[in-house]
Task: inverse folding
């Protein structure tokens, strides 16, 4: 099979290209810019385009498929050439379905927790020796790629994003996967540039539920009010399985889950993760995993990359980074740290980076989300608003949106770093939350330096 990728440098796209290359396909690709780590990973497989930019000459009648990434535009010259030649053009999710339509598909959806639940399921299946293909949105310990496609695996585990499919297909990605087993973790309005109202956003999850195959299973978090409202109304042939928070106790900074008179220690923590864990348990049961084997495996689960990931610790000072950016994610992540470390000083630092978070009209959804912190800081780069063509916002608007007059707001990453190093309490937790990188701050270096400080 000969497959060409338009916009091969994307995080998801380059992983799919590598997965198909390992499957024996002949892969070519193009992009107008490719950053690390995609660049090095493509080069290591011999898949890095010889030059940057788009070139219709690369599109030939001998191609079996063209896969179009979100980074490309609808008038991309390679796309136009492929259309002219009548080639088969797939979006990323369409091609994943094409590769998995003969397998049992497990699709993990929801506004939050998708990556973590997917990672939990994959961790347990690997421990249980169950072969599976997968697509997950973060790099996981023990997995060298984010996409695996094989001929033999009978199960495909897919993280189901609700964002758009491609520049020429406005459907949410997770509408295309047709799950046999679906799980929904929660609904909290996100992607306001695509879904202009909350009702419109919720409708996407109703449509997802309708895509479940006849006789399929829907696992959902009934702790979420929206899911508790829409999931019981699923088709009569779909088996529904609600779940809630696992019984647990926190001792000396470690969370233990309780089951049948026994306690199992975890490396992860937080109420949201206990919900995620219970959801993963129900999915693994559907896949034939015994509960005892699940609990044995989950003891060693350390979390997905950037999901409450510990990046430095020294004595009683510790730093975590987390991908949290939407209001519900920020609130859940901060509360998890607060609950895990009672009595310690908690410093929460959030970067506003996404289209939604930088919208002045949306800021009010963050009301109270940083209140559990002893010190709350917010950073945004005014240039990011220019790139996204959004109206400028002021620090005063941010404070008003968060409902916190004491909130410290920064627009210079250097000044933010200096402020963090003034927090010298010997017993303190620093939580860095962002879907970006604080405009190039070396977070690992910052974290190591920060934990070495003392209150003296």
Result:
């Amino acid at each position: 099979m000969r497959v060409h990728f338009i916009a091969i440098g994307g995080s998801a796209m380059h992983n799919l290209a590598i997965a198909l290359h390992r499957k024996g396909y002949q892969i070519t690709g193009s992009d107008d810019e490719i950053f690390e780590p995609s660049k090095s990973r493509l080069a290591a497989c011999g898949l890095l385009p010889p030059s940057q930019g788009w070139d219709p000459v690369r599109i030939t009648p001998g191609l079996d498929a063209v896969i179009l990434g979100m980074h490309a535009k609808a008038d991309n010259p390679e796309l136009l050439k492929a259309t002219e030649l009548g080639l088969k053009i797939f979006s990323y999710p369409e091609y994943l379905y094409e590769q998995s339509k003969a397998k049992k598909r497990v699709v993990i959806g929801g506004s939050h927790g998708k990556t973590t639940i997917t990672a939990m399921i994959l961790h347990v299946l690997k421990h249980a020796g169950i072969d599976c293909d997968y697509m997950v949105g973060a790099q996981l310990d023990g997995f060298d790629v984010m996409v695996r496609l094989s001929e033999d695996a009978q199960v495909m585990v897919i993280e189901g994003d609700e964002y758009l499919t491609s520049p020429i297909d406005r459907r949410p990605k997770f509408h295309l996967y047709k799950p046999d087993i679906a799980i929904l973790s929660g609904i909290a309005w996100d992607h306001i540039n695509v879904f202009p109202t909350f009702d419109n956003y919720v409708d996407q999850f109703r449509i997802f539920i309708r895509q479940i195959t006849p006789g399929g299973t829907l696992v959902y978090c009934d702790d979420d009010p929206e899911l508790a409202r829409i999931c019981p109304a699923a088709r009569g042939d779909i088996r529904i399985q609600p779940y809630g928070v696992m019984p647990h106790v926190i001792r000396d900074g470690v969370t233990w889950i309780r089951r049948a008179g026994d306690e199992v220690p975890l490396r992860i923590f937080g109420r949201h993760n206990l919900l995620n864990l219970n959801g993963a348990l129900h999915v693994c049961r559907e896949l034939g995993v015994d509960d005892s084997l699940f609990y044995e495996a989950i003891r060693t689960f350390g979390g997905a990359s950037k999901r409450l990931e510990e990046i430095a610790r020294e004595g009683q000072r510790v730093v975590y980074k987390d991908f949290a950016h939407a209001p519900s994610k920020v609130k859940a992540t901060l509360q998890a740290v607060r609950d895990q470390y009672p009595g310690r000083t908690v410093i929460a630092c959030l970067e506003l980076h996404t289209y939604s978070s930088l919208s002045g009209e949306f800021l009010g959804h963050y009301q109270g989300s940083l209140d559990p912190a002893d010190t709350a800081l917010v950073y945004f780069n005014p240039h990011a608003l220019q790139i996204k063509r959004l109206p400028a916002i002021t620090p005063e608007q941010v404070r008003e949106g968060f409902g916190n007059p004491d909130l410290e707001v920064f627009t210079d990453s250097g000044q933010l770093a200096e402020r963090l190093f003034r927090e010298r309490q010997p017993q303190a937790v620093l939580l860095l939350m962002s879907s970006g990188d604080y405009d190039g701050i070396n977070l690992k270096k910052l974290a190591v330096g920060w934990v070495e400080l003392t209150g003296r």
The chain has three domains: 2-87, 96-298, 309-451. The chain has a mean pLDDT of 94.
